[in-house]
């Protein structure tokens, strides 16, 4: 279900595409799925650290997003992550923000 | 006996501004015997003879919930019409059509139509998005580009461009418009309807995503002095990346970018050298909508660099490139190196 609008059978997000011929996905078997979720949490936290926020896997079926002040939200997938992050943060999360890019570049070394 | 319909029936969208020749193109295509197994949805009853094809009427009602969530941008009657076609096909009441062509109104934003096919809980299990074919009037196209933002968007999202009425326009005007179309959407193959042989299969079949037509050397972001600068600040960025791309980081980046700037990012397409797999992955998106990534069997040419093309309105291509590199480079952690 789409967590935002309550529509049953919400859209399949492209980062979690169902495995079928010709489609590239890591949503293929239990191990690959869990490995990708773990990597996703690490990658998202690289970005969210800039906003003093944190993402954690929740039972392999959703994610829990937490702010520095303890506010939390459950999010289904990456599409909902940024909507929730902006709501908790009260300002936009912009990947074209020069400060954020500089932070990411420093981490790459 | 005819082949059974494919698991996912491709939906091809024919769009283009008012009077740009959509119906004429459709008429021409439907004369091709190769398209005899094609269902057609048309938004107004046209005058073309569709005796062995299927004609449905769609009114332009759109269901938009207040959340603005893209998955709710569902054009109800379009969805119902496609489901009805599917149902009748499955019950044997219609011939087993292998593709569906939708002709939209000239003023339509193509995005909700694509979103409907991609997002509807039933449709997305039986239909997939095929090419977007956009017709552009060689006589009035330049004026429409200046005055009508919908016209620019229709061109930006196209996989195929058909320049119509080239026999009525001066050669100079047609060439200048062609150049302008190339600036807006360098990845789309372009035909001139009056002179070129319009091969229906080439127009309708999927290809190598057109990224090979957008080499990094062709950076088409416009400078202030560019004589073809668009009034609405459309820019095209073609970038390449030598190092393998971290798929997870790319997913984080593109979802964040589309969330914040989806309205301005008219088109994203590319082939990526993902860290891990040997063969490339094709990505393809229109505004907030990204198609399921496709795993290609082989590189379309010898070039194994990742290539991405963005068509954006009002965004700085240099910043997009810098952001992409910062997010999608494989970081120096053992976990990320596994691919």
How would you characterize this protein structure?
The complex is a heterodimer of chains A (109) and B (339). Chain A has three helices and three strands; from the N terminus they run H-E-E-E-H-H. Chain A has 109 residues and is of the alpha+beta class. Chain A has one domain (21-108). A three-stranded antiparallel sheet of chain A has the order 1-2-3. The longest helix of chain A has 19 residues, at 30-48. Chain A is globular and about 40 Å long. The N and C termini of chain A lie far apart (40 Å). Residues 1-8 of chain A have low confidence and may be disordered. With 339 residues, chain B is α/β, with parallel strands linked by helices. Chain B has two domains: 9-207, 3-Layer(aba) Sandwich (Rossmann fold); 212-337, 2-Layer Sandwich (Hypothetical Protein Yjia, Chain: A,domain 2). Helix content of chain B is 29%, strand content 21%. Chain B contains ten helices and twelve strands. Chain B has helices at 22-30, 76-90, 110-119, 141-147, 149-156, 171-184, 200-204, 247-261, 317-328, 334-337, and strands spanning 9-16, 38-42, 99-103, 127-137, 160-164, 189-192, 234-241, 265-272, 281-286, 289-290, 294-295, 306-313. In chain B, the strands form two sheets. A six-stranded parallel sheet of chain B has the order 2-3-1-4-5-6, with helices on both faces. In chain B, strands 7, 8, 9, 10, 11 and 12 form a six-stranded antiparallel sheet that branches. In chain B, strand 2 (38-42), helix 2 (76-90) and strand 3 form a beta-alpha-beta unit. In chain B, helix 4 (141-147) crosses helix 5 (149-156) and helix 8 (247-261) runs antiparallel to helix 9. The longest helix of chain B is centred in the first third of the chain and has 15 residues, at 76-90. Chain B starts with 8 loop residues before the first strand and ends with a helix. Residues 45-73, 214-231 and 334-339 of chain B have low confidence and may be disordered. At the A-B interface, helix 1, helix 2 and helix 3 of A face helix 8, strand 9, strand 11 and helix 9 of B.
């Amino acid at each position: 279900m789409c967590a935002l609008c309550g529509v049953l059978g919400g859209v399949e997000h492209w980062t979690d595409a169902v495995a079928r011929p010709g489609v590239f996905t890591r949503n293929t078997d239990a191990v690959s799925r869990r490995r990708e979720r773990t990597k996703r949490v690490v990658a998202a936290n690289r970005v969210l650290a800039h906003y003093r926020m944190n993402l954690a896997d929740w039972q392999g079926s959703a994610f829990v997003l937490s702010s520095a002040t303890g506010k939390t939200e459950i999010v289904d997938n990456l599409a909902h992550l940024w909507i929730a992050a902006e709501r908790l943060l009260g300002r936009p999360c912009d990947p074209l923000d020069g400060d954020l890019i500089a932070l990411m570049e420093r981490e790459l070394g | 006996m005819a082949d059974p319909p494919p698991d996912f029936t491709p939906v091809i969208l024919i769009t283009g501004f008012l009077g740009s020749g959509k119906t004429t193109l459709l008429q021409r295509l439907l004369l091709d015997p190769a398209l005899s197994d094609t269902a057609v949805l048309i938004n107004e009853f046209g005058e073309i003879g569709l005796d062995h094809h299927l004609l449905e009427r769609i009114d332009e009602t759109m269901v938009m919930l207040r959340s603005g969530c893209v998955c709710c941008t569902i054009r109800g009657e379009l969805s119902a019409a496609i489901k009805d076609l599917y149902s009748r096909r499955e019950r044997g009441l219609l011939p087993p059509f292998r593709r569906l062509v939708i002709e939209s109104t000239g003023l339509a934003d193509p995005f909700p139509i694509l979103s409907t096919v991609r997002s509807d809980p039933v449709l997305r299990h039986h239909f997939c998005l095929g090419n977007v074919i956009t017709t552009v009037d060689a006589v009035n196209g330049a004026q429409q580009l200046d005055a009508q933002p919908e016209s620019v968007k229709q061109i930006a999202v196209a996989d195929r461009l058909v320049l119509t009425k080239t026999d009525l326009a001066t050669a100079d005007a047609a060439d200048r418009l062609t150049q302008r179309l190339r600036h807006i959407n360098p990845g789309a193959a372009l035909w001139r309807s009056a002179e070129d042989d319009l091969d229906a299969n080439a127009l309708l079949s999927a290809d190598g995503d057109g990224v090979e037509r957008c080499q990094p050397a062709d950076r088409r972001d416009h400078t202030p002095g560019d004589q073809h600068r668009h009034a609405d600040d459309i820019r095209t960025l073609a970038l390449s990346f030598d190092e393998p791309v971290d798929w997870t980081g790319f997913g984080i980046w593109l979802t964040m970018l589309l969330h914040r700037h989806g309205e301005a990012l008219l088109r994203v397409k590319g082939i990526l050298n993902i860290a891990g797999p040997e063969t490339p992955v094709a990505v393809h998106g229109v505004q907030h909508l990204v198609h399921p990534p496709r795993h290609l069997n082989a590189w379309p040419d010898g070039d194994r660099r990742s290539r991405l093309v963005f068509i954006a309105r009002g965004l700085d291509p240099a910043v997009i490139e810098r952001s992409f590199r910062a997010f999608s480079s494989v970081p120096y952690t053992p976990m990320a190196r596994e691919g």
